[in-house]
């Protein structure tokens, strides 16, 4: 019986820890290739800076394209950043959810939730929206708290399409305690 109670306590603690981990964004910048992208908007949504929204309109369809993803973390007392992750993805495979990498799964699940993201290629021209993405909702519990930078470069074999730069920090959700009188 004590083992069951200990297990339940551990599971409830893990659940609370997962809900308290958030990503707090400090910047979200996008640069488009105007020959391919006719409209874009990238912004941090709420005052807590935990949600981001992206919108993009392509003037042509794509049979296939790729993205390079780099995650940089600070090292040492001077916070020099180093690339902890450097991946190149086939976006058509990404759309299908085929990647097993944990970082890619977090990104995929965050983008899929409320978007009109295509689920396969070819991707038709048009307007795509990714509103109210909360990366923290898809993170594993007990991740270390740190600052980070993410660079996403979307490209065709012969041209860049769109570049996204994000910076933020992984932190605990602020818990407000009620003062006793």
Series of H and E elements: HEEEEEHHEEE
User: Count of DSSP helices?
Assistant: 3
**What is the molecular shape?**
globular
Mean pLDDT: 82
Overall number of domains = 1
Radius of gyration computed on alpha carbons: 19 Å
Placed side by side, the strands forming the largest sheet appear as 1-8-7-4-5
Task: Report the uncertain regions.
Answer: 1-18
Q: Which range best describes the helical content: under 10%, 10-25%, 25-40%, 40-55%, 55-70% or over 70%?
A: 10-25%
Would you give the CATH topology?
Ganglioside M2 Activator Protein, Chain: A
| CATH architecture annotation name | Distorted Sandwich
Main sheet record: 5 strands, antiparallel
Annotation, overall tally of beta strands: 8
Distance between the termini: 38 Å
Which structural class best describes the helix and strand composition?
alpha+beta
Strand content: 35-45%
Oligomer: single chain
């Amino acid at each position: 019986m004590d083992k069951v109670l200990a297990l339940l306590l551990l599971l409830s603690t893990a659940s609370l820890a997962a809900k308290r981990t958030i990503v707090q964004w400090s910047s979200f910048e996008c640069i488009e290739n105007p020959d391919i992208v006719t409209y874009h908007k990238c912004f941090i949504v709420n005052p807590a800076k935990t949600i981001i929204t992206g919108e993009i309109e392509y003037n042509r369809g794509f049979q296939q394209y790729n993205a390079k993803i780099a995650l940089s973390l600070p090292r040492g007392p001077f916070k020099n950043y180093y690339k902890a992750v450097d991946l190149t993805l086939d976006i058509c495979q990404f759309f299908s959810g085929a990647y097993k990498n944990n970082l890619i799964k977090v990104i995929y699940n965050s983008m899929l939730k409320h978007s009109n993201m295509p689920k396969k290629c070819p991707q038709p021209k048009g307007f795509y929206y990714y509103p109210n993405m909360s990366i923290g909702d898809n993170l594993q519990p007990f991740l270390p708290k740190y600052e980070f930078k993410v660079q996403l470069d979307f490209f065709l074999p012969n041209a860049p399409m769109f570049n996204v730069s994000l910076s933020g920090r992984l932190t605990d959700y602020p818990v407000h305690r009620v003062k006793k009188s």
